[in-house]
Design a protein that fits this description.
The complex is a heterodimer of chains A (about 500) and B (about 160). Chain A has about 500 residues and is of the alpha/beta class. Chain A has 21 helices and 16 strands. In chain A, the strands form four sheets. In chain A, strands 2-1-3-4-5 form a five-stranded mixed β-sheet. With about 160 residues, chain B is α+β, with helices and mostly antiparallel strands. Helices cover about 45% and strands about 10% of the residues of chain B. Chain B is built from seven helices and four strands; from the N terminus they run ααααβααβββα. Chain B is elongated. Classes of the chains: A alpha/beta (about 500), B alpha+beta (about 160). At the A-B interface, helix 1, strand 8, strand 12, strand 16 and helix 16 of A face helix 2, helix 4 and helix 5 of B. The structure holds flavin mononucleotide, iron/sulfur cluster and FE2/S2 (inorganic) cluster (FES) (2 copies).
């Protein structure tokens, strides 16, 4: 009997290790031979720990499992039986390209990785010129998944054409946005996919060295990815001669140190170099003068982990999904006060309402949805009135919002929106790198101004609006520049909570 | 964790081990903190000397990052997520209850040196919020009773 139990940290946080121990104990008691295999998460976090039993028909899912549910696994008619995993609505409705293997395979088995399409992309890229590699990425329409949505192929081309003795591929695994966990899930659930994507980037840009800047809040991801790098190196996927191509590429993990702003690419590079994580002015672009002054690609985990499937299936296959200039698929991360929270990969274009109500099943509390914050702490709040907005870069921009790293945080009608606006300012004040005054001082003033408003001083509202404009116009990076998004959207959508009449806020 | 009063030889060995890396300063600080639970004052001149920096520069880097401690924390470090997804699921009430029970504020350590509570902004457990971490143990859908029980269980 073979049983899969996820080693994803969400599954662990919900008791996966206790379930593993219970399975071992029960198998011993019954004298049954049980092989416990570990996988990543299938993304149905509300069902974690989701245990799968291999049967001749396929993998049968059970969840959410507790140790008390284990003994019935060995009998018929389990009350938490969900049926075949592949037949679950959540799975069937997805287009899993980037996350095709996540939850299916043992994250640290290179053999299983290859058996499920892994390394096919890298092998194909090895047979191509650097220019052709870049063209393929351009053709796929892939845009950066870290937030700004910049075309990945164009960024790579700048690095490819730069002349330098050394170049770097830096993976941004700082994933600081609340409501996001796609980077974590793929690093824990299919780490070879990121490694392969970085190796392809190395070939395309003539870079021989990669760094993954990984936040310290993710100890499991650090451990799994570090181990996967060792395995890949031992197998010749990394090293002096990548899969016998004659090209070198190797990489290492660097652990962050708890600063949100280090997710900003230039702050990240300073941090990597061992400096304070202060944001650098651009130009120079990191693509020309990045890590250690050398041409550097900085890409989000999901951007890089999507590259292998683009090369495996072809750029056109990828570009055929999506909506307008938002091509391909996006791993939605549905979080917060929601019944069915988790990761759902789908083509761009699904409406916000469908995501929250249909996939998410509404709030966990059963109360009405009040607002959804999309794109992390710098993202706007949207109200159910905006639920017909299709999920795409331009479409969200049109709503004065952003998709960011595609995390959605749902709030029920008990949410205190003035409190959330205050939190946005407080967070900016805590995390500001200190380089520019509108951000460093403005955020502190923002907290004070919101406290005045909370105390009933409606005259402070125009001050808040002014302050937001100053931050927006005068900040060097999006921490100071975008904090006004959540603040102003909360004010615009819920003026009564700020003691303002609706027109005054508009 | 080793004894909390490392000799300069101990510290120098940890520093030297990171020197082959490009940009070794953060790895050095992490290695020292992992070994001793904090970065002792005595490490700064050694790091500065080895990296050809001033002590003020090393201090400037260390103080920029939330992770690095100048003094040891309590025996158990509880991190409670304060970010939005966790707030939407009652993280505010959770942290209030935990802090009140222990009689400390954010970043504080109980008088007996047993528990330190720190804020964290997202643990990537936003679909099973609120989230917390005790040492290296992650807790999803955390509540005060559960955190209490875990702390009772630990010495
Ligand atoms: C304050 C701030 C935090 C950021 N955090 C992240 C992050 O955690 N991960 C990420 O990939 N990008 C983050 N970004 C965006 C990066 O600066 C950069 O645009 C991105 O890494 C580029 O990769 P991509 O083109 O693949 O998206 C952040 C930006 C800002 C201003
Ligand atoms: S906006 Fe804030 S975080 Fe960004 S560079 Fe300015 S001070 Fe630093
Ligand atoms: S929302 Fe609480 S840590 Fe992300
Ligand atoms: S917001 Fe708390 S874990 Fe993400």
């Amino acid at each position: 009997m073979k049983i899969w139990v996820p080693m994803d940290s969400a599954a662990k946080a919900l008791g996966a290790e206790a379930v593993v121990a219970a399975i071992r104990a029960e198998a011993d008691k019954r004298g049954i031979e049980v092989e416990i295999a570990r996988n990543g998460s299938r993304g149905m976090i509300w069902l974690e720990p989701l245990v799968e039993v291999e049967t001749p028909e396929g993998r049968m899912a059970f969840g959410p499992m507790t140790p008390a549910d284990v003994s019935a696994l060995f009998e018929d008619g389990h009350e938490k039986a969900l049926g075949l995993t592949d037949e679950l609505d959540w799975m069937k409705r997805q287009t899993r390209l980037t996350f095709a293997r996540c939850g299916l395979t043992d994250p640290l088995s290179l053999e299983q990785y290859e058996a499920h399409g892994g390394l096919a992309g890298l092998r194909r890229a090895i047979g191509m010129t650097a220019e052709a590699i870049i063209d393929e990425v351009k053709l796929s329409g892939l845009r950066g998944r870290g937030g700004a949505g910049f075309p990945t192929g164009i960024k790579w081309d700048t690095v490819r054409m730069a002349h330098a003795d050394r170049k770097y591929i830096v993976c941004n695994a700082d994933e600081g946005d609340s409501g996001t966990f796609a980077d974590r899930m793929i690093m824990e659930g299919d780490p070879f996919c990121l490694i392969e994507g970085m190796a392809i980037a190395g070939l395309g840009c003539h870079a021989e060295k990669g760094f993954v800047y990984l936040r310290s809040e993710y100890p499991d991801a650090i451990a799994v990815l570090s181990r996967a790098i060792e395995i890949a190196r031992a197998a010749g996927v990394l090293g002096a001669d990548v899969l016998g191509s004659g090209h070198a590429f190797d990489m290492e993990v660097r652990v962050g140190a708890g600063a949100y702003v280090c997710g900003e690419e230039t702050s990240l590079l300073n941090s990597l170099e061992g400096k304070r994580g202060v944001v650098r002015a651009k130009p120079p672009l990191p693509a020309l003068e990045g890590a250690f002054g050398k041409p550097t690609v900085v890409n989000n985990v999901i951007s890089l982990a999507t590259v292998p499937v683009i090369f495996e299936k072809g750029a056109e296959h990828y570009a055929n999904f999506g909506l307008g200039r938002s091509k391909g698929t996006i791993p939605l991360q549905i979080a917060g006060n929601v019944r069915h929270g988790g990761l759902f990969e789908t083509a761009f274009g699904m409406s916000l309402g469908q995501i929250v109500e249909d996939l998410g099943g509404g709030t966990a509390s059963g109360r009405a949805v009040k607002a959804v914050q999309v794109g992390g702490p710098l993202g706007a709040y949207l109200s159910p009135d905006q639920f017909d907005t299709p999920f795409g870069y331009e479409e969200f921009d049109g709503q004065g919002a952003l998709i960011g790293h595609a995390g959605l945080v749902v709030f029920d009608d008990s949410a205190d929106m003035l409190g959330m606006a205050r939190f946005a300012m407080e967070f900016c004040a805590v995390e500001s790198c200190g380089k520019c005054t509108p951000c460093r001082i403005g955020a502190v003033r923002g907290v004070e101004t919101l406290d005045r408003i909370a105390a009933g001083d409606a005259e402070a509202i125009p001050l808040l609006i002014d302050l937001c404009e100053t931050m927006q116009d005068g900040s060097l990076c999006a921490l100071g520049g975008f904090t006004p998004y959540p603040v102003m959207s909360a004010l615009r959508l819920f003026p009564e909570e700020f003691g303002a009449v609706r027109e005054a806020a508009e | 964790m080793r004894h909390s009063h490392p000799t300069s030889e101990d510290l120098q060995a940890l520093i030297d081990a990171q020197m082959p890396l490009e940009g070794p300063l953060l790895p050095i600080l992490h290695a020292i903190q992992e070994a001793y639970g904090h970065v002792p004052e005595a490490a700064l001149p050694l790091i500065a000397e080895t990296l050809n920096l001033t002590q003020a520069e090393v201090h400037g880097v260390m103080s920029f990052y939330h992770d690095f401690r100048k003094a040891p924390a309590g025996r158990h470090v509880v991190k409670i997520c304060r970010a939005e997804a966790c707030q939407s699921m009652g993280a505010g009430a959770l942290s209030d209850a935990v802090l009140e029970k222990l009689g400390i504020g954010w970043g504080g350590t109980t008088a007996d040196g047993r528990v330190t509570v720190e804020a964290v902004y997202c643990l990537g457990l936003c679909a099973c919020a609120p989230a917390a971490m005790i040492g290296d143990r992650l807790i999803g859908r955390a509540d005060a009773a559960r955190i209490d029980a875990e702390l009772e269980g630990a010495a």
